[in-house]
Amino acid sequence: MNRDRFVIRNLMESKSQIRKLAKLLMSFKSHLTIFIIGNMLLWAIWLLNNSFDFNSLPLYISVTWSVILMIHYLVAYEIFKLKKNN
Q1: Assessment of whether the complete model's pTM goes beyond 0.90
Q2: Is there a domain that residue 8 lies in?
Q3: Exposure of 43 in the CB half-sphere (CA atoms within 13 A)
Q4: Kind and range of the H or E run holding 19
Q5: Within 10 Å of residue 76's Cβ, how many Cβ atoms?
Q6: How many domains does the chain have?
Q7: Is residue 40 part of a domain?
Q8: What is the full per-residue pLDDT of the chain (86 aa) written as tens digits?
């Protein structure tokens, strides 16, 4: 009886962990999609305004956002790899 409860509790915890990992991976994929679309729009607006100076706001936004996206990737996929190996 106690063994059954232990098995059920472990299954419940593993399902909960799987859901958390799935949400983390999906949040990264959503972030990546928004990053791509947002940068395309940002650079299109910049090009349409004929603002061809290289000290531009889109450049700073893209670089900063890229760093944030890389951190999000590392958090999402490194946690996934750690959980997968255990």
Answers
A1: no
A2: no
A3: 11
A4: helix 2-48
A5: 19
A6: 1
A7: yes
A8: 555 555 455 556 677 777 887 888 889 999 999 999 999 999 898 888 876 666 678 889 999 999 999 999 988 887 766 666 65
